[in-house]
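Support request from a user on the community tier.

User writes: "When I paste my structure tokens into the form, the page sometimes reloads and wipes my input. The last time it worked, I copied everything first. Here is what I submitted, just in case something in the input itself triggers the reload:"
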């Protein structure tokens, strides 16, 4: 029997919320006694990959805000890079070329340079989106920390200590997941007291022995294109959660769930949420209620409100 798990809804009308800052300030009102954590996620999870890159501008504050307000995912995923001065920022690529109005390596910039960069929304994303400044990781943590589970893929392993300090300072060690393709980085994240996630490609899964990682990997993120035997081995590895990436059609979602995966990482969370799961696979759970019906409606119609510094 299919069971839908429903999050505790956010209190209606609570739009202006006190966010937890690096100094350990007040917690968001909807936290109650504690923030939303990985331990509180439902059995089947939907993750908005880069915020849901087929539906919103990837790795943008407006895109993440829209994904949060639309309520079609329980986890927001984003990528992190480190600047020359040690600031950790949100961007997927090692260069600015593909998604911004600038060119060159991200690592060459300082925070002052970064604040002059503007994201260039893709024409393939539906809706009308304005160019905006790409966020820093600190800004994302302060906006969403504790309100929804976040996954940060550490594209630069050297940023791990900085990420750990930022997460600990905000009391979000069970609310923010740190992701990597490298088992050694996942082990370091675990030793730093973080929730560790390890993603693996279909080719890597052919020779992986994921049971060796069960003591330090909290979430194993597997390529949905992997062979059935490799996906089943991952599910039976002893790693607490196994999520499949990057799944953008209902049929591929249903295959991953039927093989035992308990999370779907997708660029199209809205599309998958609107397509019922096959009867042989568990249904994706209902998402948390949006802060207000009107804001969610506006986001669905025209994208999120432009984010201003």
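"...and here is what came back when it finally went through:"
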């Amino acid at each position: 029997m299919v069971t839908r798990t429903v999050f505790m809804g956010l209190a209606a009308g609570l739009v202006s919320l006190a966010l937890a800052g690096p100094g350990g300030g007040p917690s968001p009102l909807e936290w109650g006694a504690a923030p939303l954590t990985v331990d509180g996620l439902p059995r089947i999870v939907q993750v908005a990959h880069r915020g849901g890159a087929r539906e919103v501008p990837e790795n943008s504050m407006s895109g993440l805000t829209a994904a949060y307000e639309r309520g079609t995912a329980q986890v927001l995923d984003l990528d992190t890079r480190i600047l020359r001065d040690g600031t950790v920022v949100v961007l997927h690529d090692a260069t600015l070329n593909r998604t911004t109005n600038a060119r060159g390596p991200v690592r060459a910039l300082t925070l002052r340079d970064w604040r002059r960069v503007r994201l260039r929304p893709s024409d393939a994303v539906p809706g009308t989106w304005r160019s905006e400044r790409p966020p820093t990781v600190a800004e994302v943590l302060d906006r969403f920390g504790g309100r929804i589970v976040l996954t940060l893929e550490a594209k630069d392993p050297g940023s791990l200590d900085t990420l750990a300090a930022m997460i600990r300072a905000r009391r979000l060690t069970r609310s923010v997941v740190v992701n990597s393709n490298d088992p050694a980085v996942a082990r370091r994240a675990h030793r730093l007291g973080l929730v560790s996630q390890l993603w693996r490609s279909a080719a890597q899964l052919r020779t992986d022995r994921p049971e060796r990682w069960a003591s330090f990997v909290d979430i194993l993120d597997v390529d949905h294109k992997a062979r059935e035997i490799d996906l089943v081995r991952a599910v039976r590895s002893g790693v607490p959660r196994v999520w499949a990436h990057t799944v953008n059609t209902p049929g591929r979602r249903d295959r991953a769930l039927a093989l035992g995966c308990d999370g779907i990482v997708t660029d199209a969370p809205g599309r998958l949420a609107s397509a019922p799961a096959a009867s042989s696979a568990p249904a994706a759970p209902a998402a948390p209620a949006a802060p207000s019906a009107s804001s969610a409606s506006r986001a669905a119609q025209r994208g999120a409100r432009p984010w201003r510094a």
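Agent notes: The reload is a front-end session timeout and is unrelated to the input. The beta strands are 45-48, 75-82, 88-90, 149-154, 176-180, 195-200, 219-223, 241-245, 263-266. The mean pLDDT is 85. Escalated to web team.
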